[in-house]
Amino acid sequence: MQKDSVLYQELREVINEKKSLRNPLIEILHKAQDIFGYLPPEVQEFVAEELNMPVNKVYGVVTFYNAFTMKPRGKYVINVCTGTACYVKGAPRIIQMLTEILGVELGETTEDKKFTLTAVRCVGACSLAPVFVIGDDTYGRIETRAQLQGILDKYLKDEV
Amino acid sequence: MKLTRIDVLICFGSGCISAGAPKLKERMIELLDEHNMLGEVNIIETGCMGPCDAGPVIMVYPEGVFYKKVTVEDIDEIVTEHFLKGRPVQRLMEDADAERKAQTKKEIPFYQKQVKVALENCGYLDPESIEEYVALGGYEALGTLLTEKTPEDTIDIIEKSGLRGRGGGGFPAATKWRFARKNSRFPKYIICNADEGDPGAFMDRSLLEGDPHRILEGMMIAGYAIGAEMGFFYIRAEYPLAIKRIKLAIEQAKEWGLVGKNIFGSDYSFDVEVRSGAGAFVCGEETSLIASIEGERGEPRPKPPFPSDFGLWRMPSVVNNVETFANLPTIIRKGADWFASFGTETSKGTKVFALTGDVKNTGLVEVPMGITLKDMIFDVGGGMTAGKKFKAVQLGGPSGGCLTEEHLDVEIDYESLKERGSMMGSGGVIVMDDSNCMVNIAKFFLDFTVDESCGKCVPCRVGLKQMQQILTKITEGNGTEADIDKLEELGHMIKKLSLCGLGQTAPNPVLSTIRYFRNEYEAHIRDKSCPSRVCQNLYYFEIDKDKCIGCSLCARKCPTKCISGSREEKYTIHQIDCVKCGTCMEVCPVKAISTFPGIHSDVSAVKDKVANDD
Fold first, then answer.
1. Which residue of B has its CA nearest to A57?
2. Which CATH number covers residue B40?
3. What is the pLDDT of residue A3?
4. β-bridge pairing B563-566 and A131-134
5. Which of A9, B71, B585, B613 is least enclosed, having the fewest CB within 10 Å?
6. Distance (Å) from the C-alpha of residue B87 to the closest C-alpha of chain A?
7. Which helix (H) or strand (E) holds B336?
8. Residue A69 lies in a domain
């Protein structure tokens, strides 16, 4: 991608806006991931250059935190909660069913780039356990494959 | 001001939002408009009311009627019957199975043993309105302090109240402040730790979402006490609504002159910034959190020096948990003695817990310190979910430990839990029934801490990995007698030698389960059997031929085609090929398939043969 493309323009604006904060790297990386969907080496180099810091520092931060990814993601990211309450109430089974339905393992993206399946620690919706999150929507108390299929279908048809 | 006849509080906590609260609101507005009643009814979106299990919940004032599990269709009835004709809809009120239906919030058993201090307003006011917070006494505490009391007075009041840090460690809040106050270097920083990483905990989230101004006020009280004019909220990126609400609260407070220069006409000025976490559990540790705000990898630093001397950007800083801040305004308003009247000798006041797992009333509760586990689980929590037997309760997340039935009469405070190998932690309480395997639970927590270990110190990085490997071996049926001792030895060593709180507490779940459920470990090792039928290698499925009707559904659905038979001969599972997916058990129309602990003789025979051939 050209560094003068619209996305880089947008990132540059974000950086200029946040530059006045002290140590804004993590805040900027969050925004960069929102813009690009992931953080490939080029984006990290760009951020490092703009902030006038070594790339290895940016890389160190990107690889440390779970929220940042260097792999492209699908249109919808399915975050299955594997917190204790969800685990006790059947999160492993949800993951098993999702891997079967989508045909991908945890951390992978489907071939049509529609879904990425990941696990998160705890989304703090324990009373609805087991829970998974797609975008801003939380789905709780899922028990059967049919329920799961029904939810995924909505996204497949982009009815959300 | 607009006068209304009815106030409708719709819970917009995360639980109720996902259960459909926004649609209820939409429908209600639509109907009120139809009936020309929009001017008479005031609809308020509140933070979490607590009983998440019953969501979505709606509270109607002036009566205080409490509706649970409300659907869009129910809204029609509520509007026409209750709002128009004044007859509350009994059907939707608490406890369908109870003899007498509870009517109002006060009569509901879930609330009866609770005492709300930090959660005082949560679920009662509109979190996006500073007016409502002020109307309920908000910012009064801050005003009193800034105009009538010195920072030293403030620390004295908090010391007298006995408030201890609610993030887990339980360090007296006033002592921490005093250290920072004494340091003469400026600027100082006050930091709110809202990196609530414990799986099974959502207290901080609910507080930030439900009553953001209270946390901001609490932070400013602490800031005034230590002499900090700059504050930081460090909030997990997984909590977007909390971030949004706290940002809004800050904006409103700035407009009202409550954040900024010369607050309440005093010499005190305060500014605040929000930083978001990026998904690292270790950042809940104060030195890691500080590193993360500084834009670095969130790795801990050795203590001492403590953050109160060398904190954010090496300046004196205090990191307090969300709930600690939430208590401050009420303590100042109602007095230290009032707060100290709740609780035990060493642990004063109340504690917010996130009650989850196999208990009837899951949700957010606040109880006085010193309540017994029994009262919390069986009275507030309403007991176990139908037909299940209590087995264990896990407190304190991955750093905590499991307690058993014999501990149900233990009074909850920092010391009593620690003595028994558990801990208060941030307040996650996970109740488990007898379908849970404790070895597997211990492994679950260890998997978590291994994954989240930042890797800086060896005991935590390598030691936990070793423990994990031993546990995996045990759950796969390859454990040996020496393994339990090895786990204990490693556990104690890691606790002693790790750099930060993560490693120092990570072995707790394993150590506490060995202490109280040793027999389960032994069953896995000696009998190669998982008594709760959770560990896949150590239990098997079998079809009861007397019950089997020979419908062949299981055989057709089996993914490995390991079930065969006929209508006459009934069906059999070939154990060697079975992957224990449970599909057969799920589809069987007559429930003829059950699980049994241990390794099936067919499988062990093959295993023995392989071992002999080698």
1. B296
2. 3.40.30.10
3. 64
4. unpaired
5. B613
6. 31
7. helix B336-340
8. no
Provide the pLDDT confidence category of residue A88 given band limits of 50, 70 and 90: confident
A62-A66-A67-A68 Cα dihedral, nearest 10 degrees: 30
Which is higher by pLDDT, A120 or B209? B209
Share the mean pLDDT of chain B: 92
Q: Number of structural domains, chain B?
A: 5
């929507």: which residue's tokens?
A137
Q: How confident is the model over B505-525, as pLDDT tens digits? A: 999 999 999 999 999 999 999
Number of domains forming the structure of chain A: 2
CA B503 to chain centre: 21
Domain that holds residue B590: 540-613
Both B495 and B589 in a single domain? no
Distance separating alpha carbons of residues B28 and B13, to the nearest angstrom: 18
Query: For residue A24, what are the domain limits?
Result: 6-64
Q: Are B312 and B296 in contact (CB under 8 A)?
A: no
Is residue B354 within 8 A of residue A126, CB to CB? The reply is yes
Give the residue from A153, A77, A96, A88 showing the smallest Cα distance to B580.
Answer: A96
- The residue written with tokens 């558990």 in the block is B422
pLDDT in tens, B65-122: 889 889 999 999 999 999 999 888 888 886 655 545 556 777 777 888 899 999 999 9
**B356 shares a domain with B332:** no
Q: Is residue B565 part of a domain?
A: yes
DSSP H or E segment with residue B366: strand B363-368
Residues across chain B: 614
Amino acid residing at B373: L
Burial of B481 (0-12, 13-18, 19+ CB in 10 A): exposed
Assembly ipTM: 0.85
Task: For residues A137 and A86, state if they share a domain.
Answer: yes
Which residues of chain A neighbour B281 with C-beta distances below 8 Å? 121
Tell me if B279 and A88 make a contact (CB, 8 A cut-off): no
Q: Which residues, other chains included, contact B182 with Cβ-Cβ below 8 Å and sequence gap of 6+?
A: none
> Side chain identity at B575, as an amino acid letter?
Q
Answer yes or no: do B295 and A129 touch at CB < 8 A.
no
- Does the pLDDT at position B9 exceed 80? yes
CA–chain centroid gap for B452, Å, is: 18
Task: Determine the average pLDDT of the residues in A89-118.
Answer: 90
Q: Would you say residue A1 lies in a domain?
A: no
Residues A56, A110, single domain; the answer is no
- Contact (CB, 8 A) for B327 and B218: yes
A131: chain B residues, CB-CB within 8 Å: 18
Chain B nearest C-alpha distance from A58 (Å): 9
SS3 readout for A96-139:
HHHHHHHCCCCCCECCCCCEEEEEECCCCCHHHCCEEEECCEEE
**Two tokens at A80?**
């299955």
Residues 6 or more apart from A60 whose CB is under 8 A from it? Answer: B297
Judge if B383 and B500 occupy the same domain.
no
Contact A121/B354, CB-based, under 8 Å?
no
Q: In the prediction, which pLDDT does B264 show? A: 95
Q: pTM of this prediction?
A: 0.90
